[in-house]
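User: Assemble these into one structure.

Assistant: Restating your components, then the assembled model:
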Amino acid sequence: MNFIIDAFKPACHVSVTFADAKLRKQVALKKENGQTEMVPLFRSQDNIIGTVSVEPVPGRKVEHKGIKVELLGQIEMYSDRGNFYDFTSLVRELDIPGEIYEKKDFPFEFSTVEMPYETYSGINVRLRYVLKVTITRGYPGSIVQFQDFVVRNNSPSPSINNSIKMEVGIEDCLHIEFEYNKSKYHLKDVIIGKIYFLLVRIKMKNMDLEIRRRESTGSGTSTHVETETLAKYELMDGAPVRGESIPIRLFLSPYELTPTYRNTNNKFSVKYYLNLVLVDEEDRRYFKQQEITIYRLAESSEQAEAL
Amino acid sequence: MVADGVEDEEKWLSAGMAGLQQNAFYMHRALDSNNLKDALKYSAQMLSELRTSKLSPHKYYVLYMKAFDELRKLEIFFRDTISLGFSIVELYELVQHAGNILPRLYLLCTVGSVYIKTKEAPAKDILKDLVEMCRGIQHPLRGLFLRSYLSQVSRDKLPDIGSEYEGDADTVMDAVEFVLQNFTEMNKLWVRMQHQGPVSEKGKREKERNELRDLIGKNLHVLSQIEGVDLDMYKEVVLPRVLEQVVNCKDDLAQYYLMDCIIQVFPDEYHLQSLETLLSVCPQLQPSVDVKTVLSRLMDRLSSYAASGVEVLPEFFQVEAFMKLNNAIRKVTEAQADMPMVGVVSLYASLLTFCLQVHPDRLDYVDQILSSCVNELSVREGLDDSKATRQIIALLSAPLEKYKDIDTVLNLANYRCIMEYLNDSMRKEMANIIIQNIMNNKKTISTADKVDALFELIKGLIKDSGVETPDEPEDEFKEEQNSVARLIQMLHSDNHEEMLNIINTVRNHVLMGGAKRLPYTIPPLIFSSLKLARRLEGQDQSVTGEDVSVTPKKIFQIVTQTIDALASIPVPGLALGLYLQCAEAADDCDLEPVAYEFFTQAYILYEEEITDSRAQVTSIHLIIGTLQRTHAFGVENRDALTHKATGYSAKLLKKPDQCRAVYACSHLFWIDDHDNVRDGERVLLCLKRALRIANSVQQMANATRGSSGTASVVLFVEILNKYLYFYEKGVPQITVESIQDLIKLITNELRGDNIKSDAVADAFFSSTLRYIQFQKDKGGAISDKYKLIVL
């Protein structure tokens, strides 16, 4: 069996190792086949330094017409699967055409790479960063090896971060006033707030706070919007009376959120909303949706590292 | 339908229990394998069973208790996890990730209690957070149980004075604040329960709410247990806040229960010092609240506090407790105009008990209470309510029992006014109680004024009311009148003049009593008068001239008039007896004409009124007996009286009666200690006459029945005894021969063939003979005389 497989095995083993692999944080990345893989995490402006190793199968030589490594930033629409749009593409030539008889290492370096967008995997769209090693050959075809990595970009705390405060209602039926302490939250933030019942004429059953993600792809007439509810958090059980105020405290950390992406390369955007849902005894739903901005705050450990 | 509901509930409960237990099982497994994530997951699922809306409070409680037990295990696990180095702050956040609010909050409370124990954050902050977060549960039943859980896990962790969780300054305040807030929220939920759901199930809801009330009350209990709540804090913070909630919730069930709770859980001393605040709330309660019970309980507590020791009494004076309570009651009765009479009266009864306990010396307070009560009675209607009258009786009995002295009670001007409002039978009952009280305390009443007042009080017993009353049982009536009679005996003054006044007063009252009562009430009055007369007689020698106004003569006049009243009833037998008693007393006082007059009256009665032969026999014996004992009469008067008496005796209808009366008359002529009365001739005459009558009895018996009865033999023996008596006394006309003859006669009679032997006669005769024998053997002068008799 091994024999047969061996026959189709590539002529050499290509691997990419990063120079700071031991120090660099690894994060899980969900691959197309559904498996997750631990890959290194980079930020924009990072230096991406590493080594490409080419190790021919013992007893065989690799004849090539040049070896290069590319750093690609790609956006893939699922509606147009297989077609990648490269918004970033950097190339380093590693070797001139020749032959390789034994394991050979090719160091490479991309300095202060501009990687403005974060790795993202949504319902209709995917944004990925990848190192692509190509050993160009005439026959039997080039050897290509991909190495994914993840980019996440921290943002500073916003200088202006107003609370969201609003009075809504249905006339003579239900009046509430709600308040979220901020309009911009970081990924591990806590939403603190309260709902104040000014008038209650309907029999409430419960009240939930939902976090909804709105992913829109394409532009113009072909815009496609997909909304998913990422969190459903019960705030209140039972029917309040006038004058009651219900506290809100929702920790964002358990949910798989990303920062808000307003406009990623004109291809897609991801926005987050808080949806306050009141359900009455007849299961009628009353809701009010508010956009919040989510940003990535430098994690304290990273900050410590930066110092 | 209802049965179905119950069955369904059982089903839901067991389903809930099963779900709970299953998740508890997984939770245990997670705990055992130290898997925090799973522990949180399964505990949250377990607690989700508590989200049900289908169970009644009773069944929900069962479920809750099961969850409660499981949460204890979880708490221990949390504690262990923390001690192994897990961050409590992180855990506190972690449990809040649960999506469903109810499980989340149960877990949060559980972790919160561990958090406080670690002291990593001030207890007050954690408690504040917990009590705030619990607002998310607005469902009354679930909210109540959740908050009760919070209260349960936090009660040993309050930042109380002296507690290990005490923080810096004023943390007691935080503890109090926490409990108060939880209490307020719970009460709101509890009240809200009443207003949710269909109107038709209102009664059911009330019942369910009653089952839950202790959950709310427990908060007040916790408050009372906080060391740091001293009097000042109680007055300034705790009480006002609790009362604010009580008033504002506008729910009768809650108001009643909470007021009662406040009264029961906090110390008496606090109540006393904050009386005004507490009382000011009463008029603000819902009209349907049973304020009277609340106030009554408060007063009862204060009363027993006052009773706990004299040293606490100054506190009462200091805060003018009585005035405050009195005002409060007035306000409440004003505010609740339709309060039933029974409520009003029981309020005053409680106040009175309180007053008697705290101010035993302030009769004016007591009178004030009674006067307020009179006012209420005059305004409101419906004292026909038997409960209300019962309360009035209790009200009126209280001073009696306290002072054990009718004098004090008689000083209460309004006492009588209240009795006016009672109906006849109640008035009687009250009169009985009063009399009973006097009897038990054995205090005499010594002035005419008081006697007058007293008789006013008990006039229910003394005279008929205007309206026709249904005939009461004879026994009861007798019993009542007997107690009046006993009461008359309790009236006594050492001052003769006053005593006479008393007698006059009583007489005035008693004479209004009507024919039915006089036979009971007059005799004690007469005896009491005679006692006075005798006392005067005894003193006359020493204190002459001083009590000019009070003389035996005067008393006898009154007595005569009093007995006259009996004539109209008529009870001649009784009147005759009384006349004879008077005669004897007059005789003792050496008032011959008066005594003679009394006898005359008695004779007249005998002749004119006493027609029944049995009564005649009794009367004649009474007359003979009394006459025999008199000594004041001159020869002439005495002759007249004795002559009449013997005459009556001989005219009795039945021969045996005649016989006995006649031989009794013999005593009238020979009195040992009376030198003037030693007429042996007439003694013998009487006895001989008696013998003659006995003979004729025997003959009559022979004639009618063919055989002589033994009745005559008994008579003979009786006469023999009389012979022996006079023989012993040395009456010369009684000879040994005559005795001898009589014995022979009797012996013959007894041995006669034509009579059946009679055990009674036999025994009588043989014991008489034994007596003779005994006297013979005794020796001495009498013995010598007896030796002459040959048996």
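Helices of chain A lie at 2-8, 300-306.
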